[in-house]
Inverse folding.
């Protein structure tokens, strides 16, 4: 049975549901697999237990599904290569319902019921912010894959780290030089009028000014708005670039109405793929995006010159050249974010090996080993690209992709440097007591 | 060290303050984005017109022709129901195993067979199956078999006329109403209804409570008035196209069996309206419109824990509103037609809402059934996450793409719209036939149904709007 299970995790259709590491029963299966025989006499055969705080239900479920697939693929890979310190990795999924209170409960369950070594994998900011205090209280390492600036801001605690995905502040800063040099210097910001949009507004304006650019207008859109025609005339006619970060179900309507408003002319468009993550770029209504540019954390579409380690990552996770599930072409992945799970698991492995992690008694050593990390080279462990971790603010910095929509694909036209997104640390977690 | 839950909750709430200026938002464009680009307003108008047209045609159609058409049936084969004890005992064994799965299986609700069975197989699929094929619940429920064993072991008579306690008539179906409300609250409002462990606790508590009530009040009594699955499934099974009568299995028209349906007491009327309000609120609570009413930014939905009070009040308010609208339509119809039996009219005409409930059930849960049904099939082969492959489905790829993208959105929207409009047209027909029975003349029946038709038109538009308006998530 175990062999059967192992052999069928990857199928011609990519990962199957069976690839979901189904929690409590999985360790035995992995340990009985051939790769683990030689570790049978290791100091301990106990698995390293990682609590995966997963958005299985609630508004984050579309992301949670792909975070789960990526996590499963990475964990399998690590286990096939011998695990961590000779011990297999066991992923225990708990659903946080994309809810902060439930998130905190889940952290407590991981600590007290499942006795995990650490908690990992949270995406939505409000769940991270709601769960981090519980992780701190329980002295539980909490590796988030959230993209939010909340970790780097210093508002979390010593146990909360984000080493596998860059934060929104760095992302916004990193695209500003390319926009100013290639698309234009007069920018109009169109954003949803709440914290997410405000982040982009507040991070982007100083960044573009530093490049000699100028925000000529800000067009905040009420979050409940579903038609945008009355806001579009607020875009000044001398605008070079519309920087848009609309999110939610009305995004397609927004793009369609933008196209109707500008016709065949109009300014350049620059957006964040967050707006259309997991949505087919060829969907009806999105025609006006042709020729426009997007930030992508990691390219959705396979690029002609992509390195071997990127192809390896895509094949292992099970996404086709369009970034959709292999064998299920309408199931578009959350490619720009989910690589963070893969990289975070590998960073956990590196930090555990560096600290000689043997069990929960070594949790502080694990955090210190993570804080001590700096440069990470691109490769199979870091397929998105090279990174630089700042231990003071528990936040990683990295390269970003700027892609152009051409012939129904997103083609990468520029990779920003780590320095493009760099900002001065505003906190120092390393001075906090454990 | 154990962290107290209230403390955790306090942290979570306090930490919301930290969110300002630090948010990465992932308000997913979602499939509703594709629906927003469809010409749904035409569907809303078309749906309303179809209901109006049905009403007008019925108003001028001789009622005899309608009743005659409804009496059509086709004898299929000899059939005598059998095996209830064996089936229910088997069902109980499966139920016990599922509880074990809830506690010992995967913690992932999409890999654990208990939440998949309760929410997807039982509540979604079985409801539709019984609405089409008939009342299977007596065979499938996990109480009948154990109850027969109990009576055999204890010597308690299995006869209905000799229970330990008599459930007073005035109690009616209110126990079922109360439990359905609790069930709806658990699914729609409570924090983690999918958590396998939590769910196992709730399910075992409900089984024990129901079994105790069966022992106290008698199996038949409690299943007819207290056990809400039984009450609900019996209601929807009146729409089934199969009927068992006089030793034969018959094919009948949908809703034809309602000719023999009893006039429901107030508690039965309330139960039907609650079932409808439950599904309607399930749709409403995700809409931008509702979130705006309760002061929540739909692009930054804070999670269930932040809206428990609002959604509890919303669910209660929904059923109250439905009751007021329904009773207003009945009273107005009585006045127009000169009837004198409001309670009887309400108890008879409420049956016409059952097809709407079933149509809503199909429409609102279609996507969940298509995706979670696959997860359930896969989990069934390996219920304890031990690497088994009992039915050869453990490795099946889950094709979420079935419900994703513009083409799927178009197909699903059309199926939903067809079900909603079809359900309302059937409801209009049934209401008309019932009204003829109540008022005795075609003219009075038509007059009595004008307010009800207005309500149905409103509800058709509301149902289609729920499926086409922007939603969070």
């Amino acid at each position: 049975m175990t062999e059967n299970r192992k052999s069928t995790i990857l199928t011609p259709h990519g990962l199957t549901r069976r690839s979901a590491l189904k929690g409590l029963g999985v360790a035995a299966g992995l340990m009985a697999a051939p790769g683990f025989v030689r570790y049978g006499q290791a100091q301990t055969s106990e698995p390293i237990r990682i609590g995966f705080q997963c958005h299985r239900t609630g508004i984050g479920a579309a992301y949670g599904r792909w975070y789960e697939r990526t996590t499963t693929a990475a964990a399998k890979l690590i286990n096939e290569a011998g695990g961590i310190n000779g011990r297999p990795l066991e992923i225990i999924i708990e659903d946080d319902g994309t809810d902060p209170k439930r998130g905190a409960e889940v952290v407590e369950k991981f600590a007290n019921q499942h006795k995990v070594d650490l908690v990992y994998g949270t995406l939505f900011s409000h769940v991270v912010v709601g769960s981090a205090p519980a992780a701190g209280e329980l002295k539980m390492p909490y590796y988030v894959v959230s993209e939010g600036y909340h970790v780097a801001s210093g508002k979390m605690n010593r146990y909360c780290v984000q080493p596998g995905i860059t934060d929104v502040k760095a992302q916004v800063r990193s695209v500003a030089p390319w926009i100013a040099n290639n698309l234009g210097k007069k920018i109009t910001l169109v954003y949803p009028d709440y914290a997410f949009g405000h982040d982009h507004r507040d991070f982007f304006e100083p960044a573009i000014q530093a490049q000699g650019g100028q925000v000529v207008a800000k067009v905040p859109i009420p979050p409940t708005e579903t038609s945008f025609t009355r806001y579009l005339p607020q875009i000044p006619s001398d605008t070079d670039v519309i920087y848009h970060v609309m999110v939610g179900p009305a995004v397609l309507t927004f793009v369609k109405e933008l196209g109707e408003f500008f016709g065949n002319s109009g300014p350049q468009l620059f957006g964040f793929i967050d707006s259309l993550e997991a949505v087919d770029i060829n969907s009806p209504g999105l025609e006006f995006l042709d020729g426009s540019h997007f930030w992508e954390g990691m390219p959705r579409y396979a690029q002609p010159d992509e390195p071997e380690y990127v192809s390896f990552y895509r094949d292992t996770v099970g996404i086709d050249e369009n970034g959709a599930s292999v064998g299920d072409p309408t199931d578009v992945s959350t490619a720009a974010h989910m690589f963070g799970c893969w990289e975070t698991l590998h960073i956990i492995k590196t930090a555990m090996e560096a600290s000689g992690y043997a069990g929960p008694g070594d949790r502080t050593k694990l955090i210190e080993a993570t804080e001590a990390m700096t440069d990470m080279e691109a490769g199979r462990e870091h397929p998105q690209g090279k990174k630089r971790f700042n231990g003071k603010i528990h936040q990683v910095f990295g390269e970003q992709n700027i892609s152009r929509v051409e012939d129904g694909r997103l083609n990468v036209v520029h990779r920003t440097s780590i320095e493009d997104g760099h900002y001065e640390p505003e906190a120092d977690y390393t001075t906090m007591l454990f | 060290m154990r962290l107290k839950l209230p403390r955790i909750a306090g942290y979570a709430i306090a930490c919301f303050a930290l969110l300002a200026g630090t948010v990465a938002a992932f308000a997913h464009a979602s499939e509703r984005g594709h629906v927003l680009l469809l010409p749904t307003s035409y569907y809303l108008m078309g749906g309303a017109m179809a209901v109006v047209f049905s009403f007008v045609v019925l108003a001028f159609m001789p009622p005899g022709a309608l009743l005659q058409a409804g009496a059509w049936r086709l004898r299929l084969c000899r059939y005598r129901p059998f095996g209830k004890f064996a089936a229910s005992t088997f069902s109980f064994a499966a139920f016990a195993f599922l509880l074990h799965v809830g506690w010992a299986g995967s913690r992932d609700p999409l890999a654990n067979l208990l939440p998949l069975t309760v929410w997807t197989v039982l509540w979604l699929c079985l409801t539709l199956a019984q609405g089409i094929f008939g009342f299977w619940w007596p065979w499938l429920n996990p109480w009948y078999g154990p109850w027969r064993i109990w009576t055999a072991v204890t010597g308690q008579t299995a006869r209905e006329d000799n229970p330990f306690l008599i459930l007073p008539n005035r109690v009616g179906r209110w126990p079922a109403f109360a439990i359905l409300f609790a069930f709806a609250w658990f699914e729609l409002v409570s924090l983690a209804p999918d958590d396998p462990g939590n769910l196992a606790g709730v399910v075992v508590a409900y089984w024990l409570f129901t079994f105790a009530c069966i022992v106290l009040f008698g199996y038949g009594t409690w299943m007819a008035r207290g056990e809400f699955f039984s009450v609900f499934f019996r209601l929807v099974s009146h729409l089934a196209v199969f009927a068992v009568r006089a030793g034969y299995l018959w094919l009948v028209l949908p809703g034809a069996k309602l000719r023999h349906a009893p006039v429901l007491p107030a508690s039965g009327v309330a139960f039907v309206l609650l079932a409808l309000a439950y599904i309607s609120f399930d749709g409403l609570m995700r809409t931008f419109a509702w979130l705006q009413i309760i002061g929540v930014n739909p692009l930054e939905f804070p999670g269930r824990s932040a809206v428990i009070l609002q959604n509890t009040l919303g669910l209660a308010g929904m059923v109250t509103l439905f009751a007021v609208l329904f009773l207003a339509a009945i009273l107005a119809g009585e006045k127009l037609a000169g009837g004198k039996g409001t309670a009887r009219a309400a108890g008879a005409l409420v049956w016409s809402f059952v097809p709407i409930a079933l149509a809503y059930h199909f429409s609102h849960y279609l996507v969940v059934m298509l995706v979670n049904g696959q997860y359930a099939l896969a989990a069934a082969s390996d219920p304890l996450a031990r690497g088994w492959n009992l039915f050869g489905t453990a490795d099946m790829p889950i094709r979420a793409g079935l419900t994703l993208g513009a083409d799927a959105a178009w197909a699903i929207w059309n199926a939903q719209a067809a079900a909603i409009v079809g359900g309302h047209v059937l409801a209009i027909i049934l209401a008309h036939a019932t009204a003829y029975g109540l008022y005795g003349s075609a003219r009075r029946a038509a007059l009595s149904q004008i307010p009800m038709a207005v309500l149905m038109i409103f509800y058709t538009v509301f149902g289609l709007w729920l499926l086409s308006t922007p939603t969070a998530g």
Summary: Confidence is low (pLDDT under 50) at residues 1-42 of chain A. Chain A has twelve helices and 19 strands.
